[in-house]
Amino acid sequence: MSLSQLRHFPRRRTSVGASRDFVVGVLMEWQLTALIEDIRLCVSELATNALVHGVPPGREFAVRLDLADDLVRLEVRDSGDGQPLAQHPEEDSCSGRGLFLVGELASEFGVDRHVVGKTVWAAFKRPAAP
User: Fold this and answer.
1) How large is the average pLDDT for residues 14-26?
2) 46, 76 contact by CB (below 8 A)
3) Sheet holding 60-68, edge to edge
4) What does the pLDDT average to over 114-121?
5) Where are the beta strands (DSSP E) in the chain?
6) Are the C-beta atoms of residues 76 and 84 closer than 8 Å to each other?
7) Alpha-carbon separation of residue 26 from 31, 64, 88 (angstroms)
8) Alpha-carbon span 127 to 35, nearest angstrom
9) CA separation (Å) from 105 to 2, 16, 39, 55, 60?
10) C-alpha pair distances (Å), 56 with each of 9, 43, 52, 53, 81
11) How does pLDDT run across 33-54, given as a tens digit for each residue?
Protein backbone atom coordinates (compact mmCIF):
# COMPACT_ATOMS: atom_id res chain seq x y z
CA MET A 1 0.00 0.00 0.00
CA SER A 2 1.33 3.42 -0.94
CA LEU A 3 -0.38 6.69 -0.05
CA SER A 4 0.63 10.31 -0.51
CA GLN A 5 -0.78 13.73 0.39
CA LEU A 6 0.65 17.14 -0.48
CA ARG A 7 -0.35 20.66 0.50
CA HIS A 8 1.14 24.08 -0.32
CA PHE A 9 1.33 26.86 2.26
CA PRO A 10 1.89 30.60 1.78
CA ARG A 11 4.81 32.46 3.37
CA ARG A 12 2.91 33.42 6.54
CA ARG A 13 3.45 32.65 10.22
CA THR A 14 0.03 30.98 10.38
CA SER A 15 1.23 28.39 7.86
CA VAL A 16 3.31 26.61 10.51
CA GLY A 17 0.17 25.82 12.53
CA ALA A 18 -1.71 24.95 9.34
CA SER A 19 1.05 22.50 8.37
CA ARG A 20 0.75 20.84 11.81
CA ASP A 21 -3.02 20.55 11.35
CA PHE A 22 -2.48 19.07 7.88
CA VAL A 23 -0.15 16.28 9.05
CA VAL A 24 -2.33 15.46 12.06
CA GLY A 25 -5.37 15.13 9.78
CA VAL A 26 -3.53 12.90 7.32
CA LEU A 27 -2.07 10.67 10.03
CA MET A 28 -5.50 10.29 11.63
CA GLU A 29 -6.97 9.41 8.23
CA TRP A 30 -4.25 6.80 7.76
CA GLN A 31 -4.85 5.52 11.32
CA LEU A 32 -1.26 6.24 12.37
CA THR A 33 -2.06 8.03 15.61
CA ALA A 34 1.04 6.63 17.33
CA LEU A 35 3.21 8.83 15.07
CA ILE A 36 1.24 12.06 15.44
CA GLU A 37 3.27 13.73 18.21
CA ASP A 38 6.70 13.07 16.67
CA ILE A 39 5.71 14.03 13.13
CA ARG A 40 3.73 17.04 14.36
CA LEU A 41 6.82 18.36 16.16
CA CYS A 42 9.05 17.66 13.16
CA VAL A 43 6.78 19.40 10.65
CA SER A 44 6.61 22.37 13.00
CA GLU A 45 10.42 22.61 13.05
CA LEU A 46 10.86 22.04 9.31
CA ALA A 47 8.04 24.40 8.31
CA THR A 48 9.44 27.09 10.61
CA ASN A 49 12.88 26.66 9.04
CA ALA A 50 11.38 26.88 5.55
CA LEU A 51 9.45 29.99 6.48
CA VAL A 52 12.32 31.77 8.22
CA HIS A 53 15.26 30.64 6.08
CA GLY A 54 13.99 29.13 2.83
CA VAL A 55 10.92 30.73 1.31
CA PRO A 56 11.57 33.95 -0.60
CA PRO A 57 8.86 36.65 -0.39
CA GLY A 58 5.84 35.87 -2.53
CA ARG A 59 6.56 32.14 -2.66
CA GLU A 60 5.16 29.07 -0.90
CA PHE A 61 6.48 25.95 0.77
CA ALA A 62 5.04 22.45 0.40
CA VAL A 63 4.47 19.70 2.95
CA ARG A 64 4.12 16.13 1.79
CA LEU A 65 3.46 12.87 3.61
CA ASP A 66 4.11 9.51 1.97
CA LEU A 67 3.21 6.12 3.38
CA ALA A 68 4.90 3.12 1.81
CA ASP A 69 5.40 -0.28 3.40
CA ASP A 70 6.79 0.34 6.89
CA LEU A 71 7.80 4.02 6.53
CA VAL A 72 6.09 7.38 6.74
CA ARG A 73 8.11 10.09 5.04
CA LEU A 74 7.58 13.76 5.85
CA GLU A 75 8.92 16.28 3.33
CA VAL A 76 9.06 20.08 3.46
CA ARG A 77 10.11 21.70 0.19
CA ASP A 78 11.00 25.35 -0.33
CA SER A 79 12.57 27.38 -3.12
CA GLY A 80 15.37 28.93 -1.07
CA ASP A 81 19.02 28.25 -1.64
CA GLY A 82 20.18 27.87 1.96
CA GLN A 83 21.63 24.59 3.23
CA PRO A 84 20.07 23.41 6.50
CA LEU A 85 22.60 22.17 9.04
CA ALA A 86 22.06 20.71 12.49
CA GLN A 87 23.56 23.10 15.04
CA HIS A 88 24.96 22.67 18.51
CA PRO A 89 23.65 25.76 20.30
CA GLU A 90 24.73 26.97 23.69
CA GLU A 91 22.71 25.58 26.59
CA ASP A 92 20.93 28.90 27.19
CA SER A 93 20.22 29.58 23.50
CA CYS A 94 16.55 29.99 22.53
CA SER A 95 16.93 28.58 19.00
CA GLY A 96 19.00 26.28 16.83
CA ARG A 97 17.70 22.88 18.00
CA GLY A 98 15.17 22.13 15.25
CA LEU A 99 17.18 19.80 13.04
CA PHE A 100 18.71 18.15 16.10
CA LEU A 101 15.19 17.32 17.32
CA VAL A 102 14.18 16.03 13.89
CA GLY A 103 17.27 13.80 13.83
CA GLU A 104 16.44 12.41 17.28
CA LEU A 105 12.77 11.69 16.52
CA ALA A 106 13.05 10.35 12.96
CA SER A 107 14.57 7.06 11.88
CA GLU A 108 16.56 9.09 9.38
CA PHE A 109 16.49 12.52 7.77
CA GLY A 110 18.23 14.39 5.02
CA VAL A 111 18.19 17.12 2.41
CA ASP A 112 17.59 16.71 -1.32
CA ARG A 113 18.85 19.63 -3.42
CA HIS A 114 16.94 20.72 -6.53
CA VAL A 115 17.74 23.11 -9.36
CA VAL A 116 15.59 25.57 -7.42
CA GLY A 117 15.31 24.98 -3.70
CA LYS A 118 15.49 21.88 -1.55
CA THR A 119 13.46 19.25 0.23
CA VAL A 120 14.18 18.50 3.87
CA TRP A 121 12.76 15.10 4.76
CA ALA A 122 12.39 12.81 7.73
CA ALA A 123 11.39 9.14 7.71
CA PHE A 124 9.54 7.42 10.55
CA LYS A 125 9.04 3.70 11.06
CA ARG A 126 5.43 2.70 10.92
CA PRO A 127 4.31 1.02 14.15
CA ALA A 128 3.55 -2.68 13.91
CA ALA A 129 -0.13 -3.50 13.60
CA PRO A 130 -1.68 -4.87 16.82
Assistant:
1) 97
2) yes
3) 2-10, 60-68, 71-78, 118-125, 108-113
4) 94
5) 2-10, 60-68, 71-78, 108-113, 118-125
6) no
7) 9, 10, 32
8) 8
9) 22, 19, 8, 24, 26
10) 13, 19, 9, 8, 9
11) 999 999 999 999 999 999 988 8
